[in-house]
Each structure stands twice: as C-alpha cells, then as structure tokens.
C-alpha cells in the first residue's frame, strides 16, 4: 500500500478535546498538517487562535457540555471520523487520601472518564453506520504508577479509562471502528507546571524540589526528560492514519522508559 503521509487524512473530520494547549494542541496541529478538518474543544478560547481549526467552547466535565459538542459537530460537519479524547487533568490537592473530598473524586471522574464515555456514545452510532472511524483515548502511565500524594483520583480515573477503552474496542472492532489508548508519561506542559506549583505550595518546598519529587515518585525517567507534546502527537498521528489500519484494542505507552516492567 502507498500512503501520502502529508495528505493521508484528507477528507477526514477530527475532534480533539482539550485541544487548545499542551499535547492536545500539538495533536490538533499534527492532524491538520495531515490534511484533516480539525475541531477542538476547551472551556476557553485558545490564546493563539488558528483560523484553520474550528473551536467549540464547552465544559466537558458536564453532560450538557458533551452534548453541545456532539450536536454542533453533527450539525456543522455532518459526521465525525476521528475522535481524540485528550481532555484530562488533576486539580485535586496534595496530601493523600485524607484531604480528598467526594467532590474531588467526582470532578476527576467526570473529566477523565465520563467525558470520553459520553462523547464516544454520541459519535459511535454514526461511525458504526458508516463502518469506519477511529477513537483514541489519552490515558496516562499513572493508571499503573499512581502518585498517591498528589493525583490519586486522576490515576484511578485513568485506570478506569484504559479498561473501558479495551472493552469498547472489543465491542466495535467488528463494526469497523478502531479504538486505541495512548498512555503518556510525564509531558512538559503548563498543566505539569501547575501541578508542581501545587506540590511546592503544599510541602513548602521549591519548584525544583517538586520536580525532583515527581521524578522520584515515577521511579525516574531513563530517557532523562519529560516528553514533548509534539512527540505524543506524532504517535497519535500514526495511530489514526491508514498506516495503522489493523491496530485496535491496544494501549501504547510513551513514557521515555518510565514504567519499569513489561
């Protein structure tokens, strides 16, 4: 098979949640460069607007937010071919289980698990009717290496997302839809910086100490640094392309060797 890498997603319509910054922005840019019509969602407009990428303002942690996105995409574009469930994050306080409220847990699960579930439910029927489509769930290595002091609800939600993603792939593979999981390790984004700031504030330490603490908690990164958003985007770009047509139901870890086991 011959592929035109630079135009391999021509005529495809892609949605990237949390696509205004960090890895989400890098993924959106990567899919656009491959020829896709790209839609992004976030609660606020991106600081650097790209007139070539369509933006939908929505709070996906709420059911009405996900429904708004589904309705607008179908109304304006008629269908969706590629769904990148990238939205995620942790805003819970550091300090372990004792400082976490029900609201902390519920917020983490709404954002990191239920938002993807609702979007999948909204777009899958159309993909199944056309017998084609790709869904990528962006999880995290914290599904396997939870940081109990700072991101326990996030880690639990991502573990649930990995399990859900595998189950969903088994259900819809025979119906023409591929479902995959990408689990990054530490990515150097603004969210990562905010997490370190919260840890530093909680412990009374410095940012450098917080960064070292995260590295130590992860057991170190053999590659010697956090991932760049563009590196994660390149993996996603491959997985949604025709070159990956036989891949489904698999979790792809991109962590610079952080996880110490197979």
From TrEMBL:
MF terms (GO), sorted A to Z: 3-oxoacyl-[acyl-carrier-protein] reductase (NADPH) activity
Enzyme Commission identifier(s): 1.1.1.100
Keyword Oxidoreductase: yes
Keyword Oxidoreductase: yes
Pfam families associated with the record: adh_short
Origin superkingdom: Bacteria
Keywords: Oxidoreductase
Family per record: Belongs to the short-chain dehydrogenases/reductases (SDR) family.
The protein, known as: 3-oxoacyl-[acyl-carrier-protein] reductase FabG
């Amino acid at each position: 098979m011959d592929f035109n890498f630079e135009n391999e997603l021509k005529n495809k319509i892609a949605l990237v949640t949390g696509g205004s910054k960090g890895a989400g922005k890098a993924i959106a840019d990567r899919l656009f460069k491959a020829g896709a019509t790209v839609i992004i969602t976030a609660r606020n407009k991106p600081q650097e607007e790209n007139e070539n990428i369509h933006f939908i303002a929505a709070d996906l942690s709420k059911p009405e937010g996900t429904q708004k996105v589904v309705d607008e995409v179908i109304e304006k574009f008629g269908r969706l071919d590629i769904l990148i469930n990238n939205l995620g994050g942790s805003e819970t306080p550091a300090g372990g289980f004792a400082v976490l409220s029900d609201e902390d847990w519920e917020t983490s699960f709404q954002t990191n698990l239920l938002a993807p579930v609702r979007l999948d439910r909204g777009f899958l029927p159309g993909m199944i009717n056309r017998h084609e489509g790709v869904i990528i769930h962006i999880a995290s290595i914290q599904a396997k290496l939870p940081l109990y002091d700072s991101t326990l609800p996030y880690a639990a939600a991502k573990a649930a997302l990995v399990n859900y993603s595998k189950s969903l792939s088994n259900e819809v593979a025979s119906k023409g839809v591929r479902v995959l999981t990408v689990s990054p390790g530490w990515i150097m984004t603004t969210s990562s910086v905010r997490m370190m700031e919260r840890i530093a504030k909680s412990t009374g330490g410095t940012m450098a100490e917080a960064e070292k603490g995260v590295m130590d908690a992860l057991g170190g990164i053999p590659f010697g640094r956090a991932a760049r958003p563009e590196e994660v985007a390149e993996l996603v770009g491959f997985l949604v392309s025709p070159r990956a047509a036989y891949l489904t139901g698999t979790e792809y870890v991109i962590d610079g060797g952080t996880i110490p086991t197979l």
